[in-house]
TrEMBL record:
<protein>
    <submittedName>
        <fullName>SET domain-containing protein</fullName>
    </submittedName>
</protein>
<dbReference type="InterPro" id="IPR050600">
    <property type="entry name" value="SETD3_SETD6_MTase"/>
</dbReference>
<dbReference type="Pfam" id="PF00856">
    <property type="entry name" value="SET"/>
</dbReference>
<dbReference type="InterPro" id="IPR001214">
    <property type="entry name" value="SET_dom"/>
</dbReference>
<feature type="domain" description="SET">
    <location>
        <begin position="21"/>
        <end position="220"/>
    </location>
</feature>
<dbReference type="InterPro" id="IPR046341">
    <property type="entry name" value="SET_dom_sf"/>
</dbReference>
<dbReference type="GO" id="GO:0016279">
    <property type="term" value="F:protein-lysine N-methyltransferase activity"/>
</dbReference>
Length: 392
């Protein structure tokens, strides 16, 4: 950081004159800089508002560093990060609208939340950093999104003064840490498990590795829809994969059903998994309410009945729902296949793509379409294998 030197009496007098004539100066002052003449220096620590989640504050700090040529400290690290165009190619946030419209339900919900968080952080922060463009903030926000680690640290009575002393003062959105070098690791559902404590992070191999073999870590027990929206990729095989069933089951409920489920804490969040048990306890509960009525449902959720006697009927009912969904998935896949890709499928698509770029809208890229096709095929396989398991 270049030293800020005393500007001299003339500048102090001018500052007083400007203030007297209505110029409002808050927390800054004129100063002299070597080779740059006069400039403005922070006259006290200027902090970003404290009530904004760490995600937004980290993104703001990175954006300010990026745009300040004198801030060289982290440039060597920033040079190894993905570019804006890498994010544009992979993150559903930048998918063309026609492609976003065909995202699976879980991914759509995650994308809506992500966009809302990003917008909230931008609206809260841009008044404090008028020189930063939204484009740059979006980029650094995604850097934070894809490269930070969750840091569940204990209470730290003797910690560094910058760290909050009590864990419980923080929400999950505050437990973010950026870790140079650790952020090289790609994710696998069976990767090494990073450990953290008040000193930082460490990683130990989970098994033997041959030289040249990729060493993965696990970012957490994430479904492929989560990985797609938050990180821009999906795994070919993911033992933590699940799909939500809410959009299939909630429309079947009466008002009385909704009240009963809400009262018991069983409303929503029904999932189908790639691993056994295929259906979660919540799904077992809602299905019993739908098929067997209030009394049998209550004995099941109350734990007085394990529900095994009616399991056949429950499975049969769900198989009917899933079979219908499986047909819908085939239709969705046909729609995705029919989408025109930038500059490949036809001259019309190419013309539209250049028009879209001028409009600031994205065109569909073939690799994005391929990811979506793979994802819908995975969902189809998951549903069909559940139908097979439940029909046994
Ligand atoms: C923490 S960074 C890992 C390093 C990153 N690959 C890079 O080039 O800097 C997370 C990003 O890596 C990519 N990534 C991580 N795991 C992946 C995987 N299993 N398959 C494909 N891409 C992956 C995604 O783009 C994700 O947003």
């Amino acid at each position: 950081m270049a030293a800020a030197l005393d500007p001299g009496e003339q500048h102090t007098n001018f500052m007083q004159w400007a203030t007297k004539h209505g110029v409002e100066i808050n927390g800054i002052a004129p100063a002299k800089f070597v080779d740059r003449g006069m400039g403005i220096v922070a006259a006290k620590d200027i902090k970003l508002p404290e009530n904004i989640p760490v995600h937004g504050r980290l993104a703001a700090a990175l954006a300010l560093w990026y745009s300040d040529p004198s801030h060289q400290e982290y440039k060597i690290w920033q040079h190894v990060w993905p570019s804006k165009s890498d994010f544009r190619a992979t993150m559903p946030l930048y998918y063309a609208e026609a492609l976003q419209d065909l995202l699976p339900r879980a991914a759509t919900n995650l994308l809506i939340n992500q966009r809302a968080k990003l917008e909230r952080d931008w609206v809260d922060l841009y008044p404090h950093m008028p020189s930063i463009s939204k484009d740059l903030f979006e980029y650094t926000w995604l850097i934070v999104n894809t490269r930070t680690f969750y840091w569940e640290y204990p209470d730290l009575p003797n910690s560094h003064p910058r760290l909050p002393k009590k864990r419980k003062q923080l929400t999950a959105d505050d437990c973010y840490a950026m870790c140079p070098f650790m952020d090289y690791f790609n994710h696998s559902d069976a990767g090494c498990d990073p450990q953290s404590d008040s000193k930082g992070y460490s990683l130990t191999a989970d098994r033997e590795y041959k030289a040249g073999e990729e060493v993965f870590i696990s970012y957490g027990t994430h479904s492929n829809d989560f990985l797609l929206v938050e990180y821009g990729f999906i795994l070919d095989s993911n033992r933590n994969d699940t799909i939500p069933l809410d959009h299939l089951l909630l429309p079947l409920l009466t008002r009385e059903h909704v009240e009963a489920l809400k009262e018991d804490g069983f409303y929503g969040n029904y999932t189908l998994s790639s691993e056994e048990p295929t259906i979660c306890h919540r799904t077992e509960a809602i299905l019993r309410l739908l098929i067997l009525g209030n009394k049998r449902y209550s004995t099941f959720v109350g734990g007085d009945d394990d529900g095994s006697k009616e399991q056949y009927r429950v499975n049969e009912y769900l198989v009917q729902i899933l079979t219908k969904y499986s047909r819908q998935i085939i239709e969705i896949l046909e729609e995705v296949h029919a989408l025109e890709v930038e500059g490949v499928d036809s001259k019309r698509a190419a013309r539209r793509s250049s028009r879209n770029i001028k409009d600031g809208k994205e065109a569909i890229r073939s690799e994005q379409k391929d990811v979506l096709i793979r994802r819908w095929k995975q969902i189809g396989d998951l549903v069909n294998s559940a139908i097979g398991n439940l029909s046994r």
